[in-house]
Automatic annotation (TrEMBL):
<protein>
    <submittedName>
        <fullName>EAL domain-containing protein</fullName>
    </submittedName>
</protein>
<dbReference type="GO" id="GO:0071111">
    <property type="term" value="F:cyclic-guanylate-specific phosphodiesterase activity"/>
</dbReference>
<feature type="domain" description="EAL">
    <location>
        <begin position="24"/>
        <end position="267"/>
    </location>
</feature>
């Protein structure tokens, strides 16, 4: 029999737990449908040369279809919950398919796809991706892969195999959100990196303090040491663009140059 405060606590805890589990399940079901039914589109944002201000390549950003009943809000939550629900590989494959479709029509410039760290470690995903690239070699000249530095990469050996296989096919890698996580140095050692994308937090901070400018300069030097080119993200003002260029950054991305939107020439 249930009586006394202790039993009540247990009942309350069980109710809370089952409510939490039910919510997570409902979210996973919704996410799976959103992914398999492709209820999203991609928005494209230019990465421009800081010297010539011309688009160098584009980053594809996920834009879930608006849905009043969505149990997630915003892109970041969509991705985080997909990861916790074990759906990140499916999501990344669906995103990649959409990016490839855009890449086939994009004239000349590469399109960057964001991949989850979990995906990068999956031998299954690697096989599928390499089969796709081998069947359609043009894609190796049209794609670029961004891996966020905040990704948890446990099986580094598998991730390295994927990165090396991609590079063998001429597909460049960018370490995204550089400086925002704790793995920056490890990734520079583990992967052969083509681009280092300095996290927007440093771009904003550099306008305000000499110490932060020093940190950006140091990141640029570090990137040079491993032969990588440097991108600065979240550039919103002309002053930030000039400062980044003075500090040796090659490319910029941000609202100053263009918001995420349709790919030009794609209708
Ligand atoms: P990220 O890869 O670092 O993408 C840059 C984010 O900064 C984007 O947010 C973009 O809209 C935003 N942004 C661009 N310019 C500016 C600016 O000048 N000012 C400000 N304040 N923000 C700017 P978004 O689209 O919300 O994406 C957030 C994060 O979600 C991305 O960060 C990326 O880590 C992840 N993500 C987005 N799309 C995908 C995807 O298709 N697959 C995966 N796995 N992750 C994705
Ligand atoms: Mg990115
Ligand atoms: Mg970024
Ligand atoms: Mg970022």
């Amino acid at each position: 029999t249930r009586d006394g405060p202790e039993a009540l606590d247990q009942a309350g805890f069980a109710d809370g737990l089952s409510g939490f589990v039910a919510e997570a399940c409902a979210r996973a079901v919704w996410l799976r449908r959103a992914i398999t039914e492709r209820r999203f589109r991609m928005a494209f944002q230019p990465i421009v040369g800081l010297a010539d201000r011309m688009p160098h390549h584009w980053e594809a950003l996920l834009r879930p279809e608006p849905d009043a009943a969505a149990p997630v809000s915003g892109v970041q939550e969509f991705i985080t919950f997909a990861e916790t629900a074990g759906l990140s590989e499916e999501l990344d494959w669906a995103v990649l398919a959409a990016v490839c479709a855009a890449a086939r029509t994009a004239r000349g410039s590469r399109i960057a796809a964001n991949l989850s760290g979990l995906t990068l470690q999956s031998p299954d995903f690697r096989e599928k991706l390499l089969a796709l690239l081998d069947a359609e070699p043009l894609l190796s000249h049209r794609l670029l892969v961004e891996i966020t530095e905040t990704a948890e990469i446990e099986n580094e050996a598998e991730a390295v195999r994927t990165v090396e296989a991609l590079r063998e096919r001429g597909l460049p890698l960018c370490i995204d959100d550089f400086g925002a996580g704790a793995a920056a140095f490890r990734y520079l050692r583990a992967f052969r990196v083509d681009y280092v994308k300095i996290d927007g937090l440093y771009v904003t901070a550099a306008g305000r303090s000499a110490q932060d400018r020093g940190i950006v300069a140091g990141m640029v030097e570090l990137a040079r040491t491993v032969g990588a080119r440097v991108v600065a993200e979240r550039i919103e003002t002309e002053a930030e663009a000039r400062l980044m260029q003075e500090l040796g950054v090659d490319y910029g991305q941000g609202w100053l140059f263009g918001r995420p939107g349709p790919l030009p020439g794609s209708g």
